[in-house]
């Protein structure tokens, strides 16, 4: 099993969460909530209002999201879904555990130094330069006050 941190449309209550619970695509078990140890820009960009974490460590905010344990099948699905490696790149990042529900309770999270885990994150280093000038968010909600509603793939 691999650990994945999701911060956008794959979170609970968001438009693509259905993929995380579709066992035909693999297994994904919710472990808890966290936030990036380093700051990153989280922008909503493009004509479909897609959330992107720009891989510019030290700029932006500590991004909030959810931690999942996923099997190899789900990891392969997520790579395809996220357009990896062209649109997003899957990289290891340090995630501070905020709330833990995973197997073994908080013990497993505490076993990591200061509650910090390494998780795969889909961020991007392949973005138009003007995206750096977009507003930065610390958390994503497709129906947030930003007013930029996400456009589902099936509606594009």
Automatic annotation (TrEMBL):
Species in which this protein is naturally found: Alaudala cheleensis
Presence of the UniProt keyword Lyase in the record: yes
CDD domains per record: GGCT_like
Role: Catalyzes the formation of 5-oxo-L-proline from L-gamma-glutamyl-L-epsilon-lysine.
Catalysed reactions listed for this entry: epsilon-(gamma-L-glutamyl)-L-lysine = 5-oxo-L-proline + L-lysine
Active site: 82
Assigned GO CC terms: cytosol
Record's protein name: Gamma-glutamylaminecyclotransferase
């Amino acid at each position: 099993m691999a650990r994945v941190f999701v911060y956008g449309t794959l979170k609970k209550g968001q438009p693509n969460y259905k993929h995380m619970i579709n066992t035909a695509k693999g297994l994904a078990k919710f472990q808890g909530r966290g936030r990036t140890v380093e700051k990153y820009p989280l922008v909503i960009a493009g004509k479909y209002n897609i959330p992107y974490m720009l891989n510019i460590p030290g700029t932006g905010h500590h991004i909030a999201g959810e931690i999942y344990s996923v099997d190899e099948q789900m990891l392969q699905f997520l790579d395809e879904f996220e357009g990896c490696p062209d649109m997003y790149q899957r990289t290891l990042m340090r995630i501070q555990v905020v709330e833990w529900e995973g197997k073994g309770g908080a013990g497993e999270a505490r076993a990591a130094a200061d509650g910090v885990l390494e998780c795969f994150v889909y961020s991007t280093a392949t973005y138009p330069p003007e995206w750096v000038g977009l507003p930065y968010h610390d958390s994503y909600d497709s129906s947030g006050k930003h007013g930029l509603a996400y456009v589902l793939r099936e509606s594009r």
